[in-house]
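so im writing up the methods section and need the Purine catabolism protein PucB record in one place, dumping it here so i stop losing it
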Amino acid sequence: MIPVLLLAAGKSSRMGSRDKLLEEIDGVPLLALLAERALQCGPTYVTLPSADHPRRAILSKAVTVIPVAGEMSNSIKTGIAALPAEAKGVLLMPADMPDITANDIGKVIAAVQESDALIVRACTANGTPGHPVYFDKILFPEFENLDGDRGAFHIAKALKDKTHLVPLEGNRARLDLDTPEDWDRYRNRFS
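--- predicted struct ---
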């Protein structure tokens, strides 16, 4: 079993008074949209700033919510600790990546099944590493040393030679929306 861990415990501080994960795409809050896409591929865990955070109200009851405080490293460590023992590894994904589809998530999971790499990572069409990123269970002890807001960057960098890249269409493996300006550009890209 390969669970998806959606990282959604951030404060959305660069958005001013708005919550980027509650911004809507085609009438659906971004976090709900990504959680539904992840659920199509397997068990889905979502880190939130608290169990009663407003983001909880838009999530399906099928997701497992993991309350966590602190930076991204805390979110990853707490999320991994909450995974079931039978998890083969974990597929980490920030929850602010609107163009990642269920097919993309499935493509990375399928590549895990076909590869003996410790890390299987989505990349852009031109090969730039991005998300989602699968980490084999054997690497879970490495996450105990994480700190700060850089996620698992150092773990992935140190194991570049044990990483298999999975190209996704265009720039979707790198596109995230952190600011109101990002959202405006995203919404106006087809105008």
